[in-house]
Amino acid sequence: MNPLSVVVRTGCDLFAWFMVVFGVNVLVHGYMTPGGGFQGGAIIATFTAFLLVAYGGRKMHGWANEKIFDLFEEVGLLAFFVLAFMGFPITFFYNYLVKPLSAGGVIPPAGTTALMSIAVGLEVTGALSMIILTMFRGIRMFETVPMKEEFGHDR
Hints:
The protein has 6 helices and no strands.
């Protein structure tokens, strides 16, 4: 896949980073607003698809190190399970960081819910980015196979 026009690449340069900032915002505030870890991670992973379409496969595979996406996936999943098991003396997924509501009427912090939302967002970002890159690689494999060899006739 070749890069698209200068207009598309310039639009990508301008708006792609806003997509990442919006995804991080949804991810971090997702425990108390609509959204959450999965939705924020999906928005951030869309950034990978956006760059892949605008700049093409060669440049994207040069930029994107797949080990980073693997690391996001592993750290997010490990953090989620560690947070879940830390409340285990009482119960699995016990929200042990929440403090009781004070007399002043202050809303208590989300405790482990916010941290688990961030862990899910990291995992989803890594997994969906890897899926996007793997699907692109699979499409490229089928484009290089000539039709004559596969079906016995020319296109």
